[in-house]
């Protein structure tokens, strides 16, 4: 979940499947673009992981969430766009 006020990303894992959950974000700011990721490898019942990012107001943000096992991604969501 991306919150545009404060620019936080929270990633939770509710499935006991041995896979991590990773959110990939792209920020398209006036000064340039960058890509970051947030991973929750705690497993189901391990709580959520939240990261805070500083993003210029009005910047476009794209997010995609995938399951990850090692370096292999699967079950990726569609990309979602919003504005910071």
Q: What features would you describe in this structure?
A:
By secondary structure, the protein is mainly beta. The protein is 0% helix and 55% strand. The protein has no helices and 8 strands. It has strands at 2-3, 8-11, 20-29, 32-40, 49-52, 60-69, 72-74, 80-83. Strands 3, 4, 6, 7 and 8 form a 5-stranded antiparallel sheet that branches. A 3-stranded antiparallel sheet has the order 1-2-5, with no helix packed on it. Strand 6 and strand 7 (72-74) form a beta hairpin.
Features:
five-stranded antiparallel beta sheet, three-stranded antiparallel beta sheet, 84 residues, mainly beta, elongated
Topology record:
Layout: E1 2-3, E2 8-11, E3 20-29, E4 32-40, E5 49-52, E6 60-69, E7 72-74, E8 80-83
Antiparallel strand pairs: 1-2, 2-5, 3-4, 3-6, 6-7, 6-8
Q: Could you tell me the radius of gyration in angstroms?
A: 13 Å
What is the 3D shape?
elongated
Major sheet details:
5 strands, antiparallel
Low-confidence stretches: none
Query: Could you estimate the helical fraction of the residues in percent?
Result: under 10%
- Structural category is mainly beta
Q: Which percent band covers the strand fraction?
A: over 45%
Number of helices: 0
Could you give a quick summary of the protein structure above?
With 84 residues, the chain is mainly beta.
């Amino acid at each position: 979940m991306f919150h545009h006020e404060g620019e936080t990303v929270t990633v939770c894992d509710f499935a006991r499947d041995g896979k991590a959950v990773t959110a990939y974000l792209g920020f398209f700011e006036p000064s340039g673009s960058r890509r970051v990721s947030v991973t929750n490898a705690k497993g189901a019942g391990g709580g959520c992981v939240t990261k805070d990012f500083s993003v210029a107001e009005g910047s476009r943000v794209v997010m995609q969430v995938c399951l990850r096992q090692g370096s292999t991604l699967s079950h990726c969501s569609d990309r979602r766009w919003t504005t910071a």
